[in-house]
Design a protein that fits this description.
Layout lengths: L1 H16 L19 H8 E4 L3 H14 L3 E6 L4 E5 L3 E3 L11 H10 L7 E14 L3 E14 L2 E7 L2 E7 L2 E6 L3 H18 L6
Antiparallel strand pairs: 1-6, 2-3, 3-5, 4-5, 5-6, 6-9, 7-8
Helix pairs in contact: 3-5
């Protein structure tokens, strides 16, 4: 239990101090602890006291305000797909779950060159549907994505100089941190209220 609490605290701290906040672009953080399916559904889902049309437009506007690119927005199906711009980072999506500060520091120092870094971006898929009593339900799934290009580098095997050919690599990790979803849903709720004439003062 203490380990899980430590991991959650570590990744919340990384989220808060990453320099990327919801006023500019949303930073997504992954928690390494296992999450039960019902817990995942609960953190990813909200029911709004508004029509699905209002929630759909509020979510689109919120994502645009946060700097996300809309890859698809199909009102008929209620599906929204969005992504952030690509950037270079030293750690891959799965490596972010490693809590050893020594390993993280050494790895970041070792990957100082651009050619050694991951191309990183975040993705979101949302589904908005009608819900009983004139409400709408939204389900959001956030993922951290990363890719490394194929590369070749010299190495020694049995005291012989050889060339290692590393294939291209891609990773995707679903975000499982309740605080990240809660923050995004709060922004969407504010946009919903504004569209219903009850914007926050």
């Amino acid at each position: 239990m203490k380990r899980i609490m430590f991991q959650r605290a570590l990744f919340i701290a990384l989220f808060l101090f990453s320099g990327c906040h919801f006023g500019q672009r949303m930073a997504i953080v992954v928690t390494p602890s296992e999450v039960l399916p019902e817990e995942r559904a609960a953190m990813q889902t909200r029911v709004f006291m508004a029509s699905d049309d209002i929630v759909f437009s509020a979510m689109v506007a919120t994502l645009q305000d946060l700097g996300w690119s809309l890859d698809a927005a199909d009102r008929a199906s209620g599906i929204i797909r969005a992504s952030t711009g690509k950037r270079l980072e030293p750690l891959g999506p799965k490596e972010e779950a490693i809590t050893s500060f020594e390993w993280r520091r050494a790895t970041i120092e070792k990957r100082g060159s651009e050619k050694d870094q991951w191309t990183r971006w975040d993705e979101m898929v949302a589904h908005i549907e009608k819900w009983p009593n004139s409400r709408a339900r939204a389900r959001i799934v956030l993922s951290r994505r990363g890719s490394l290009p194929a590369m070749s580098y010299p190495s020694k095997v049995d005291r012989r100089e050889v060339i290692i050919n590393a294939p291209a690599k891609e990773e995707s990790v679903e975000v499982s941190l309740d605080e990240v979803y809660a923050t995004l849903f709060k922004k969407i709720e504010q946009a919903v209220q504004e569209r219903m004439g009850g914007g926050l003062k």
